[in-house]
Amino acid sequence: MKNVDVIIVGGGPAGAACAWKLAQHQVNFLVLDKATFPRVKPCAGWITPLVLRDLEIDPADYPFGIKHFTNFQVSIKDFHFKLRTNQYAIRRVEFDDWLLHRSDPALVHHTVKEIRVEDDRYLIDKTFSAKTIVGAGGTNCPIQKTFFKNELNGHKGALIVAQEEEFAYEYHDDRCHLWFFQNGLPGYAWYVPKANGFVNVGLGGSAAKLKSNNDTLKHHWALLVEKLDKMGLVKGHEYKPVGHSYFLRGKNPVVRQGNAFIIGDAIGLATRDMGEGIGPAIQSGIRTAEAILSSQDYSVKSIQKYSFPSLLGFR
Ligand SMILES: Cc1cc2nc3c(=O)[nH]c(=O)nc-3n(C[C@H](O)[C@H](O)[C@H](O)COP(=O)(O)OP(=O)(O)OC[C@H]3O[C@@H](n4cnc5c(N)ncnc54)[C@H](O)[C@@H]3O)c2cc1C
Fold first, then answer.
1. Which of 18, 98, 203, 251 is a plausible cystine mate for 189, CB 3.0–4.6 Å?
2. Confidence tier at 77 by pLDDT (50, 70, 90)
């Protein structure tokens, strides 16, 4: 049995941010992840300046490509405009691996299946034990399923289904394009050029609204591919999109039960307007680490619920 003080389940942005803070205070902790890093995560990879500030990252020091946007090309149905902004894009396959290894944590490749409580300690798969556990396992986090199951059921209406693909492409348009509510999509589609010759295209929307409209993401994907071709943004590419789902921010999420904490997508923290999940995941990871270090309460109340203030430069 491997005994430590804290076990973080999941090494995505939420778990990595928590690990980064704990490592600064010499906490005896372990990160378990079912994936071998670097791992692919379906995501457009858009990050705000707040993400960089929270993680104390100077874009000039980031060792991989980071793309800076000073405006977005936005379409809301048939209304088109240029939004002046200050945002960034990274590739998740690079960013997550770098972030996780930044604090050089003890990382174990392990798929968590069973968690039990025994003598005030959490036992994971009869192999690992800790006084405190942090659920950072994303949408299907085993800690969420074991200790917080009834909580996420409360905001099932906030389930977002999304589909995307990232690929090497010699793009000619290096602007970020966003299309909201087109052809009845209850969400938005994107074209995000990345540094070093990659693009990410995708779309996402409310699962409940798609269902009630008797509509599918597949149908909107076909329309998006057509649009990308027509606009000359991506031509001649054979698409192999991947799908994923996650929850938008609920009203009063329960974030702690005893010494079990949950963070990031495991709680459903993505912003209600744009489904931005990386920033809230990182903030929840940092706040959890601070709560563990200070034995204080952990709250997500002050974590951003909307992305528009950041897009407009207010944050
Ligand atoms: C298509 C798409 C596009 C998106 N675009 C953006 C965007 O541009 N900007 C943005 O801010 N947000 C975006 N999001 C949301 C964002 O990707 C998530 O909110 C973010 O990844 C949440 O981070 P996390 O650390 O909570 O979870 P994750 O990144 O999902 O990490 C969870 C980790 O837990 C591990 N894990 C899971 N189960 C187990 C287990 N049983 N045992 C051990 N390990 C386990 C996984 O392997 C994974 O590494 C997008 C989401 C999708 C689906």
1. 203
2. confident
Please give the backbone phi and psi of residue 172, each rounded to the nearest 5 degrees, phi first: -110, -20
Between the CA of residue 188 and those of 82, 130, 183, 209, 217, what are the distances in Å?
16, 41, 10, 13, 11
- Measured from the CB, is residue 190 less than 6 Å from ligand 1? no
Candidate of 244, 278, 307 to mutate for ligand 1, largest count of ligand atoms within 8 Å of Cβ: 278
What are the structure tokens assigned to 232, written together? 């000359």
Superfamily of domain 158-244: D-Amino Acid Oxidase, subunit A, domain 2 (3.30.9.10)
Q: Which residues, at least 6 apart from 141, have a Cβ–Cβ distance to it below 8 Å?
A: 9, 10, 135, 262, 265, 266
Domain boundaries, the chain: 2-68+88-157+246-311, 158-244
In this prediction, residues 130-158 reach a mean pLDDT of 85
Cα-trace Rg, the chain: 20
From the number of C-beta atoms within 10 Å of its C-beta (0-12, 13-18, 19+), residue 22 rates as: buried
Strands in 176-180's sheet, in edge-to-edge order, are 46-47, 79-89, 67-76, 176-180, 187-194, 198-206, 159-168, 242-247
- Tell me, using a 6 A CB cutoff, whether residue 13 lines ligand 1: yes
The sign of the dihedral angle between the CA atoms of 140, 146, 149, 152 is negative
The reply to whether omega before 38 is within 30° of 0 (cis) is yes
Span 163-172, average pLDDT = 97
Residue 281 in this model has a pLDDT that exceeds 70: yes
Residue type, 171: Y
Region 2-68+88-157+246-311: CATH code: 3.50.50.60
Asked whether residue 315 carries a pLDDT value surpassing 80, the answer given is no
**Confidence bin at 151 (pLDDT 50/70/90):** low
149 confidence band (pLDDT: 50, 70, 90): confident
